[in-house]
Amino acid sequence: MPEPAAPHPIAPEQAELVAFLGTPEAHGGATPQRIDTHLSHVFLGPQTVLKLKRALTLDFVDYSTPDQRRAYCERELAANTQWARSLYLDVAPVWKTPEGFQIGGDSPGDAPVDWLVRMHRFADEDRLDKRLAAGRLTLAQVERFADDLAANHERAPISDTPTLSQNVSGLIDQVAGDMAAAGATPLFREASERWHERARSAPRTHRGLIDARGQTGKVRQVHADLHLKNVCVWRDRLVGYDALEFDDALSTIDVLYDAAFPVMDFLHYKAGWAASALLTRYLARTREYDGLPLFDLYLSLRAAVRAMASGLADQQAEADAYLDLALESLAPAPAPQLIALGGRSGTGKSTLASAIAPTLGKRPGAIILRSDVIRKVMAGQAPEAPLPPSAYTPETSARVYAELVRQAKSCLAAGYACILDATFLSKKSEANLADITQDFDGEVKTLWLEAPTDVLRARVAERRGDASDAGMDVLEKQLLEDEPQGWTRVDVSGSRDEAVTALKHALS
Asked: CATH 3.90.1200.10 spans which residues of the chain?
């Protein structure tokens, strides 16, 4: 639910309604919790949330009349329907009658005095930042969230923005100015100036790429405010709520900039594993690897936005932490690494790749490219959906590995460490690896994962809901194939933790 903010005074014309909405009468007999934000009065009932937009006018929004507030309520409902599924209910009129206020229902005759957004209430502990802090977030939930984010971006309205780089430059200047004004300490203001100096050069460096994305359908009207406090678990899915509805210019942005917000916030909350998993899965579903040179800037800008917001809310410690992250995201990064993880089915390549990815390269870590996932996405299927044998022809496999090469080159060129997750049993896959490394002068490590045959068979037999379609028959064929030569061999026959330790040792 929304966080409290240093509010404006209650508008005199809404004072009586605000008082009523805070009574049990407005919530089926239960006393609600009231939260005042900069733009709204929010009342949390046992089952339903009522949101009243404040009667005010600011530089960026006009809520001064009931008709204006109705329009923005309807915009909020429309903006969130795609993102929050059934969490939002409707926009309800409020009438004033001789008996008091009436919410919804049939009109008593006079025009409504105001309007409300109505939503279901979710459990406070199901807000994503709180769920994360309690250790109640799983890798599967993060990946499903990434899938939903990718799908929402795919169907979001497209904007043709030929001068997107100018918009990005203007946003950087605006955020820097707001940060400096919000900073309560000289150190914060000095750091915000350093951030501004670093950030303002990025749009010039990447002007061509930024504008190209605006011209090729990558700029869309999206959620635009997907930090973790605006995400919750609703009906067993992570959904974003409170989408930015009051300014189309602020919500019409590069889809990668939208995806950067939750990635950045996972980093802020020290959940590097979730940040890494979200980015890897989102890229796998969207194939937006060509936009990766912009991701450092987008991460940094998102962190700066939160630093500004925290400063305005007099949360200086949080503002400092976000600003540190904003600066770190633009700092020189280590040279990218390329790591090939090969091995037969059952060696745990994907599990181990996810474990080590957050520790490699620049934040949020190495990007994992898994041949099984690429095959599924190219076939238009979810990674865990089974494919028929016709999807495993030599011709199809050649296209899959060609795409693996393309994605790997894009990741490395953007300065990201990259983990290749494939069997690497065939001469062709080794040739693909050579193609990737041909023009790459960074560190390359080839690791062959191995375990006794009985261990492999047991793991394959137990595997469920995985991107790999390889069953026991495939494993038996793999056992007859020759292993690549010259690779560092890693024993992964033990527990997951033991295998992770062995893998990290091989990488050191």
From this structure: 128-329
